[in-house]
Design brief:
six-stranded antiparallel beta sheet, single chain, alpha+beta, globular
């Protein structure tokens, strides 16, 4: 995860599992519930103020309203949890409304007890971190954190986010200023990526990264667990156990997928100065019911996000080519574009005689288009120059160079 890049380093979040005591789990659960209540109550209050007084509310006014709520008999229990996570939820809500009024997002939705992520954000005034022991406000004992990897030397947490996922796993995310992240030495290497389903990505070098299909590997186990869940009575204890079993299978699939993407993106960013990808509209593509499951399992959006923030960390560049660019139909050797190319055609022969692997050809065209777009001062659409034309251009340039060294032809010769 990345927040900002500066001279002082990178704002980086380190996520760890922890095992709370029964008292800590109960106190954190009450904190999650209080955050959900405040987050859902604030929009109603904002709407009432706008209707009655014809004005919008600022964050300071929302914070003052929260203070008033704590003094009422109905919401007096809000004083039993730390006030910082409640204030942070109001800040997030205010940012969501700002994005909505600027037409950058939809209207903020309510938090659901089952579907929404249970989390609480603590700023520096609401926790103590000494000698590797993290203690939250309103708690007397430090969290039992599983330190799977050390924090950067000398790092001081600025924000701590505690969460519980659907698989009933507790996590703590510690945001620090990581001074160890520095730009890598420049390399003279650029690569193009063509995303796919059978092959996760095809590189312009001809290498193909096979899609592990993590969801498909556990599909039978997941289907059986979901079937058992459907048989259980609503609201029963057995249904809760079956739901937890399904959530744990999903969590294992997600962890494996994320681990594979992290290893792949780190390798691509370290080995290449420029990485060119397609600007795919995954949200539109998953509307295809036949391919939605496979596209979601490939996680192309997450792949792109990892490439972009790691490139920002290490001084690399990620270029996104327009999604309407005909990368598969364009011959990377002569520049000819075929009229139609069905999805089942994995190889095709151009009229120039070159036999193309569909994915390798597309990745080479994506690379050429990305490099051409970087060179284009106007930033408009650019058709990449074919390899044959590039060779012809080099020959023409060499002939002009040779001729420039000869004496001018005299008239009458």
């Amino acid at each position: 995860m990345i927040r900002a890049v500066g001279i002082q380093g990178v704002k980086r979040a380190f996520k760890y599992r922890f095992h709370p005591t029964s008292e800590q789990a109960e106190q954190l659960s009450r904190t999650f519930g209080s955050i959900r209540l405040v987050y859902n109550r604030a929009p109603e209050h904002r709407g009432r103020v706008y209707v009655t007084e014809s004005r919008s509310m600022t964050y300071a006014q929302s914070s003052a309203a929260l203070t008033a709520w704590k003094k009422t008999d109905d919401l007096k229990f809000l004083n039993e949890v730390s006030s910082v996570p409640l204030q942070q939820s109001l800040r997030h809500l205010h940012s969501a409304f700002t994005a909505f009024f600027e037409k950058r997002s939809r209207y903020p939705s309510f938090k659901s007890k089952r579907k929404s992520r249970a989390s609480a954000e603590y700023t520096k005034s609401a926790f103590t971190f000494r000698d590797g022991r993290l203690t939250l406000a309103k708690q007397t004992e430090p969290l039992d954190i599983v330190w799977s990897r050390p924090l950067p030397v000398g790092a001081e947490p600025s924000t701590v986010t505690v969460s519980r996922d659907a698989a009933d796993r507790w996590h703590v995310s510690i945001l620090v200023d990581d001074l160890t992240v520095r730009p890598l030495p420049p390399v003279d290497q650029a690569i193009g990526l063509d995303a796919g389903i059978t092959t996760l990505v095809t590189l312009s070098t001809g290498e193909k990264i096979i899609n592990p299909r993590h969801e498909r590997m556990d599909h039978a186990k997941l289907a059986k667990a979901q079937q058992v869940l459907a048989w259980k009575a609503t609201g029963s204890g057995n249904r809760a156990k079956a739901r937890l079993r399904v959530a744990r299978i999903h969590a294992r699939i997600t962890d494996r997928r994320r681990d594979h993407l992290h290893k792949l993106t780190t390798r691509l960013v370290r080995e290449n100065q420029t990485v060119v990808i397609e600007d795919l509209s995954v949200r539109t593509m998953v509307q295809n019911r036949r391919l939605a499951r496979a596209i979601s399992d490939a996680a192309w959006s997450e792949l792109r996000a990892m490439l972009e923030y790691k490139a920002a960390w290490y001084g690399r560049t990620v270029v996104a080519v327009d999604r309407w660019f005909p990368s598969s139909k364009l011959c990377s050797d002569c520049g000819t574009t075929v009229e139609s190319l069905p999805l089942n055609a994995r190889e095709w022969t151009c009229r120039c005689g070159i036999v193309h692997d569909r994915d390798v050809n597309a990745s080479r065209n994506i690379l050429a288009a990305g490099l051409a777009e970087r060179r284009n001062a106007c930033g408009g659409p650019v058709r990449p120059e074919s390899r044959r034309r590039r060779r012809q251009g080099l020959v023409k340039q060499e002939s002009q160079t040779v001729r420039s060294g000869l004496p001018a032809r005299q008239s009458g010769e």
